[in-house]
Amino acid sequence: MAKDRMGRPYVEEERLRQRRAGERNGRPLSFLHLMNGKGYAFEGKMLADVVYPKGIKQFKKDFPTFMDVGKKKSEWAKQIGPYMVPERNISLSFQFFWGELTKRAVS
């Protein structure tokens, strides 16, 4: 995090990555990259094509309602959770967030 000339906070640099479905090696896809308050994000359709092996068109057919999508997101969160090591995440904004959560959990 940094501050602009008006003293407002902004994300100095942040990059979020995700491996493509079925990949075990290689560089993960950067689906969000912010630098000096500007950046890019892949459109949701492209990201869905990455995380759902059958692609966004089939995802919409397989999970047509908001309830279905919510259930699938919960399922993915349960699958991802065991692999997360929050202490090793080098994002300064994430470390701040994690520190605040940790403080509240201890209280």
Short description:
By secondary structure, the protein is an alpha+beta fold. The protein has four helices and five strands; from the N terminus they run βββββαααα.
Low-confidence stretches: none
The helix/strand class is alpha+beta
Q: Going across the major beta sheet, what is the strand order? A: 3-4-5
Which percent bin holds the helix content? Answer: 40-55%
Mean pLDDT: 77
What is the number of E strands?
5
Return Rg in Å: 17 Å
Q: Please report which band the strand proportion falls in: under 5%, 5-15%, 15-25%, 25-35%, 35-45% or over 45%.
A: 15-25%
Q: What are the secondary-structure elements, in order, as H or E? A: EEEEEHHHH
Shape: globular
Largest sheet: 3 strands, antiparallel
User: How many DSSP H or I helices?
Assistant: 4
The end-to-end distance, rounded to whole angstroms, is 26 Å
Topology record:
Layout (H helix, E strand, L loop, with lengths): L1 E2 L5 E2 L2 E6 L10 E7 L2 E4 L2 H8 L3 H8 L3 H15 L11 H15 L1
Antiparallel strand pairs: 1-2, 3-4, 4-5
